[in-house]
């Protein structure tokens, strides 16, 4: 196994393209996106049952090294402050194959 940083981002679905562009701009090209994430937070409940992306969240998962994690969090901080959302960074183990 390989030690990595696990970055989990939950952000308004309307802002996903902007976040993915920010990631691409700093050289991050490997990630997974899960759409229609439901839950409740500082912006209230998100049901995920609407016909458009308004009031929906998406989840972005990234596994990276420490240096990339620092770049990602610094790029995301102003966006999260302005638009809301959540970013969790934790240590993880990548099962290599």
Say what the CATH topology is.
Alpha-Beta Plaits
- Number-wise, the strands total 6
Shape: globular
Please identify the structural class as seen in this structure. Answer: alpha+beta
The total domain count is 1
Q: Biggest β-sheet: count, sense, barrel?
A: 4 strands, antiparallel
Helix content: 25-40%
Description:
The chain is α+β, with helices and mostly antiparallel strands. The protein has a single domain (2-94), classed as Alpha-Beta Plaits (2-Layer Sandwich), CATH 3.30.70.120. The protein has two helices and six strands; from the N terminus they run βαββββαβ. It has helices at 16-25, 66-83; strands at residues 2-12, 32-37, 39-41, 44-46, 57-64, 86-94.
Concise synopsis of the structure shown:
It contains two helices and six strands; from the N terminus they run E-H-E-E-E-E-H-E.
What labels would you give this structure?
29% helix, Alpha-Beta Plaits, two-stranded antiparallel ribbon, alpha+beta, 97 residues, 2 helices, 6 strands
List the helices and strands and how they pair.
Elements: E1 2-12, H1 16-25, E2 32-37, E3 39-41, E4 44-46, E5 57-64, H2 66-83, E6 86-94
Antiparallel strand pairs: 1-5, 1-6, 2-5, 3-4
